[in-house]
Amino acid sequence: MVTLDGSTLKVEEVMKVAQQGDKVAVSQQAWERVIRCRNRVEQMVANQETVYGVTTGFGKFSDVSISSQDVEQLQTNLIRSHACGVGQPLPQDVVRAIMMLRANALAKGYSGVSKETLQLLVDCLNHGVHPVIPAKGSLGASGDLAPLSHLALLLMGEGEADFQGARLPAGAALSKAGLTPVRLKAKEGLALINGTQVMTAIGLLTYVRAERLAKMADAIAAMTVEVLRGIPDAYDESIQQVRPYPEQAAVAANLRDILQGSRLTTRQGELRVQDAYSLRCIPQVHGAVRQVLTYIADKLSIEINSATDNPLIFLENGKVISGGNFHGQPIAFAMDFLKIGMSELANISERRLERMVNSQLSGGLPPFLARRPGLESGMMIPQYVAASMVSDNKVLCHPSSVDSIPSSANQEDHVSMGTNAARHAVEVIENVARVLAIELIAACEAAEHHGPEKLAPATSRLYHAVRETVKPLLQDRSLTGDIEHVANRLLEGEWIKQPANVS
């Protein structure tokens, strides 16, 4: 059980709810604040105060007054009109993360949502009633309006939902789960959709997978260093100390540990004086990627515990203030940074792969690691595939955060495009996983030519883990299934502790 209070949620807890089905509850202190904040909204309506989205229209219609008898219809109309997302539905784990993050933001007690509405959102999450949320349609400012409106539709008993493996009308799904839809009251529709939870949910799940890839990249690179008879002197601690980036030092220490006991690595001057950059600069490049991930983790930790509604209700002084916490710029930057950082992990991986398959660079390995070069192509085309995905990443890495298209008749004249950045980051991460998978398969194949018994104990364990499902390339065969299988294992982090034992 994960307790939501709006302030202390951790990334690990989101993952447990999103992917493992853990249940959530709102803390008693949070409930008390939610109720008091809701009472303040009711007071506004009774006093006919002019408050954006409560007694006025939305966006360009913020100057249009709404009568007290229409305030509930206003919220219903808001959700129905804004629920116009398009594209494929978001995956279930992303939807669960969205629901949890929205509940946590509402539990902070600044949004004015009713206890009944927040409880239904929590109940839907705990009962596995998941709204169908199309992936495309958010500008990432004024919140993730279109996708979050599909979440709000569920609470109204409208739209579609996935429940127990079936897609149903939302009302039917709620009924089967023993739940009853709510009629949204003043401000509640706005409270449900003004927020960055879609881009943050996508970004958080993508960040976790990126962390796994960054860790496994060290072990994969280490095996490549071995089969290319690389020189670990470049990873010496003294080199890292005079350029004291902690992430660079951590990668170098990882490489030293992983390569301990190898009978394939060489020393300076033994075969060559120094290696190419793709081998020699692994600590510097992989370390810089870890710096990117550190930055992103910090921003996600702040965002998942933020109030991103508008207007916000401050019980301490009674103020109701319109602001811009719904603007997704911090997450937009973070997601663009994630794309750029992780794409470099694939860039350097593909260059190491090229050295393994190019007999002019591999130091004695057969061309394309083929058993019968010429008659067989070996790993020739997998390198093409890796190069294709590296190129694809360069297009996907165009920053979404530098784009802005005005909306709502120029009232909302600057937007973040953060959700687009997060969606593109998903594609980049999947490409990176496949490039690393191809490098790992090639490194295992190169080890066959040297004798896998010469690998270091750590890389030997990784080699045998791969060989449980990916057999040696004794003759040409389609490697599509093998590449996808290994990429999925890397994304799920199954080999981080055993057999790779990386940190």
What secondary-structure arrangement, pairings included, does this model have?
Layout: E1 2-4, H1 11-20, E2 24-26, H2 28-47, H3 71-82, E3 86-89, H4 92-107, H5 115-127, E4 130-131, E5 134-136, H6 145-155, E6 160-163, E7 166-169, H7 170-176, H8 188-193, H9 197-227, H10 237-241, H11 246-259, H12 277-280, H13 282-303, E8 312-314, E9 319-321, H14 329-357, H15 380-396, H16 418-450, H17 457-467, H18 480-492
Parallel strand pairs: 1-2
Antiparallel strand pairs: 3-5, 4-6, 6-7, 8-9
Helix pairs in contact: 1-4, 3-6, 4-5, 4-9, 9-11, 9-13, 9-14, 9-16, 11-13, 13-14, 14-15, 14-16, 15-16, 16-18
Core attributes:
mainly alpha, 3-stranded antiparallel beta sheet, single chain, two-stranded parallel ribbon, Fumarase C, Chain B, domain 1, 503 residues, Fumarase C, Chain A, domain 2
How would you characterize the overall build of this protein?
- The chain is mainly alpha-helical.
- The chain folds into 2 domains: 2-195, Fumarase C, Chain B, domain 1 (Orthogonal Bundle); 202-492, Fumarase/aspartase (Central domain) (Fumarase C, Chain A, domain 2).
- It has 18 helices and 9 strands.
- Helix 3 (71-82) packs across helix 6 (145-155) and helix 4 runs antiparallel to helix 5 (115-127).
- The radius of gyration is 26 Å and the shape is elongated.
